[in-house]
Specification:
Blueprint lengths: L1 H38 L5 H22 L11 H27 L2 H8 L2 H13 L5 H19 L6 H24 L9 H23 L3 H11 L2 H26 L2 H23 L5 H25 L1
Keywords: Membrane, Transmembrane, Transmembrane helix
GO cellular component, one term: membrane
Protein name: Sugar phosphate transporter domain-containing protein
Length: 313
């Protein structure tokens, strides 16, 4: 009996450690992105995303081929590879848009807009699969959208271009979720998230190289020039890129050792934690109206999660 208790305690401790690592990496990469793109003055969001995807390519392969964290799954056909490429394109659009938005918006408002992901997921699921949710589920989306409208009106650092980019990032993230569910749903094409990342990340790098060359001219030379003045930029980029992979790894492990629903609940809380930490670090002005709007959005997301859970029972 005692051994079982010890095992149970170790299991709980392991889960708490995983969740802590997931929180730390998620919030860490978000804050470091903001610091680099806004405060530090490294104004190259596409190049930064390319660094993230490069790290994800290397670490994913190492984790699967060498460390064997999960069995390697090979693509079954050219069609499956084409589907993975399509997902990678949407994934790129989401990450690049999100990074661009951080140049213009504070993390607190970025997270408020990002919390509307369930709204876009429901819209795309209906438009693409004609999948209807229960009336209660749709009603729960009202405070989600209303909260962001209120937060936008009360945001002292509101920037229209940054807002559009942030909405685009949120919509693309939701679209990827819906497409992934459709494209990888058949038994012959099911692939776990770690293997999917291993194939998506190199494709993303290939897509981002020309975008970086044409849209962020001379970025490598500028980065090298920055490094001569402050070599820390290289460490920031390496650490930031490694964290980007760690986000995906801990996301997979937390889902594996808990459940997708637990991850969803933790994700709702993560946004609120990120907002508080970012305000303390960057000291961006926050209005009472903005915080009320964000709180309403989070409440809406929680209600939406509960409504979806009940509709599946």
């Amino acid at each position: 009996m005692t051994g079982g208790g010890k095992d149970g305690g170790k299991g709980r401790l392991f889960t708490v450690g995983l969740v802590t690592a997931w929180y730390s990496s998620n919030i860490g990469v978000l804050l470091l992105n903001k610091y680099l793109l806004s405060n530090y003055g490294f104004k190259y969001p596409i190049f930064l995303t390319m660094c993230h995807m490069g790290a994800c390519s290397l670490f994913s392969y190492a984790a699967i081929a060498w460390l064997r964290l999960v069995p390697m799954q090979l693509p079954r056909s050219r069609l499956q590879l084409a589907k993975i490429a399509a997902l990678s394109l949407v994934f790129c659009a989401s990450v690049v848009s999100g990074n661009i938005s951080l140049r213009y918006l504070p993390v607190s408002f970025n997270q408020a807009v990002g919390a509307t992901t369930p709204f876009f997921t429901a819209v795309f699921a209906y438009l693409i699969t004609v999948k209807r949710e229960s009336l209660l589920t749709y009603l729960a989306l009202v405070p989600v959208v209303t909260g962001v409208i209120i937060a936008s009106g009360g945001e002292p650092s509101f920037n229209l271009f940054g807002f559009i980019m942030c909405v685009g990032a949120t919509a693309a993230r939701a679209l990827k979720t819906v497409l992934q569910g459709i494209l990888m749903s058949s038994d012959g094409e099911k692939i776990n998230s770690m293997n999917l990342l291993m194939y998506m990340a190199p494709i993303a790098v290939i897509l981002l190289v020309p975008a970086t060359i044409f849209m962020e001219d001379n970025v490598v030379a500028v980065t090298m020039e920055l490094a001569k003045k402050d070599f820390n930029i290289i460490w920031y980029l390496l650490f930031n890129s490694s964290l980007a992979y760690f986000v995906n790894l801990t996301n997979f492990l937390v889902t594996k050792h808990t459940s997708a629903l637990t991850l969803q609940v933790l994700g709702n809380a993560k946004g609120a934690v990120a907002v508080v930490i970012s305000i303390l670090i960057f000291k961006n002005p926050v209005s009472v109206t903005g915080m009320l709007g964000y709180t309403l959005t989070v409440i809406g997301v929680v209600l939406y999660s509960e409504a979806k859970k009940r509709s599946k029972q």
